[in-house]
Amino acid sequence: MKWLLLLLIIVPAAEVGVLILAGNVIGIWPTIILIILTGILGAWLAKKEGLQTIRTAQLQMQNGEIPSSLVMDGACILLGSAFLLTPGFITDLTGFLLLLPATRGSAKALFQKILNRMLRNGTVVVTRR
């Protein structure tokens, strides 16, 4: 919980700094236009990747397979979309890294490692019916 609180303080402060720096370097209007364009591109990419993941999951279930890897893909896409909704360049970069299939694999591996550690430590408990 303390890590989350720390991130909620550091990330917005860093975003403000980067936005001020970008405004000084390229100007206010180009910075605003760039923020809007990354939002539009991010929304399009999130929709595209989300629909592709849903289609793949449906195909796997029709073939009797369990789409376990796609659950983590969906979580990355959801998290990446949330980052892209937050204005700023740092969160946009993080969102794009979570949305693009080429870089999502690394994020999935990291999230799986964190989840496994939390399961071992008892931080997260899974209950099955």
Description of the molecule:
Helix content is 85%, strand content 0%. It is mainly α and 129 residues long.
Number of strands: 0
Major β-sheet profile: none
Envelope shape: flat
Residues in helix, %: over 70%
- The number of helical segments is 5
- Mean pLDDT across residues: 89
Distance separating the two termini: 28 Å
Give the SSE map.
Elements: H1 2-26, H2 28-62, H3 68-85, H4 89-99, H5 101-121
Helix pairs in contact: 1-2, 2-3, 2-4, 3-4
Summarize the structure.
The chain has 5 helices and no strands. By secondary structure, it is mainly alpha-helical.
Features:
mainly alpha; 129 residues; 85% helix
